[in-house]
Amino acid sequence: MSPATGAVTDALRELHSRYAGVGEGELADYIPELALADPGAFGLALISMDGHRYSTGDAGAPFTIQSVSKPFVYALALSLLGLDEVSRWVNAEPSGEAFNAISLERSTGRPANAMVNAGAIVTTALIPDTPVAPRFGRILDCLSRFAGRRLDVDEEVYASEAATGDRNRALAYLIRSTGPLPVDPVAAVETYFRQCSVRVTALDLAAMAATLAHGGVNPLTGDRVVAEPVAAQVLAVMATCGMYDASGDWLLRVGLPAKSGVSGGLIAAGPARFGLAAYSPLLDRTGTSVRGHLAIGMLSERLGLHLMYNP
Ligand code: GLN
């Protein structure tokens, strides 16, 4: 991190108090359990490449990871199968559509990218499922190594999504009907729900983003979670697709690879510099945390974090 450490702490605190009063946005309610979140919760966390942790507000409050899991499961698929094999089944083009859109290429049935639900369901399906190493066990181990501590599942949120997840099931059936995918996306969608229900904090998400920024090595534990090229591939897809139909505007204004989730988690990564996370559950129309977007956007401006900006 090039800005002085005191400047980071001051900036996080200042942004927290500046945006804590913003009451715009809605709680996600299509997964009923998510509508029970505290609309006032707001936490910010940043982790540098030397493992320094900076945080303010509700950075230790638990919530479910939701779509912020997608880049990390994509990283696992890339690690196990390689970019060429994964790309046969899920593309890397921005869809310009909402997270739950029917984003499938007309000719091949391949999802547009691994950040939208259709692509994430395929990514999850690609993770091998064997008696010795079940698919979800592999995913939970991987997410935990990115976070640097053992994570667990919020069973209430899982049950709530499993009870109401018919749109994602419909996407899985559609994928199965149109493509020659060698694995069954319909079975895998239940694992996808479980992956989305893994419990994290903003500090965990900052560690996960920092691991991607640090070339795949967790800066807190020193654990090499994925190879350097995999970390770069994931950051590239986050930069172009991580914010769904707001990805272009985000890259233009904030200038960092990022990923949002409907429980209010939001990560951004500064390659070779930092991992950043926000938690605040009031969402805008794209399903992104309103306060998180404001705070990370302003932090990028304040500290000159835009990747295309070279002073
Ligand atoms: N589990 C949620 C879903 O599939 C994740 C969506 C999100 O966070 N954007 O609908």
From TrEMBL:
Q: Where does substrate bind?
A: 67, 117, 161, 168, 192, 244, 262
Give the keywords, sorted: Acetylation, Hydrolase
The protein's annotated catalytic reaction(s) are:
L-glutamine + H2O = L-glutamate + NH4(+)
What GO molecular function annotations does the UniProt record carry, in alphabetical order?
A: glutaminase activity
Mark the transmembrane ranges: none
Q: What class of enzyme is it?
A: hydrolase
Origin superkingdom: Bacteria
Q: Keyword Nucleotide-binding: yes or no?
A: no
Q: What is its EC number?
A: 3.5.1.2
Describe its assembly.
Answer: Homotetramer.
Belongs to which family?
Belongs to the glutaminase family.
This one is known as Glutaminase
The gene designation is: glsA
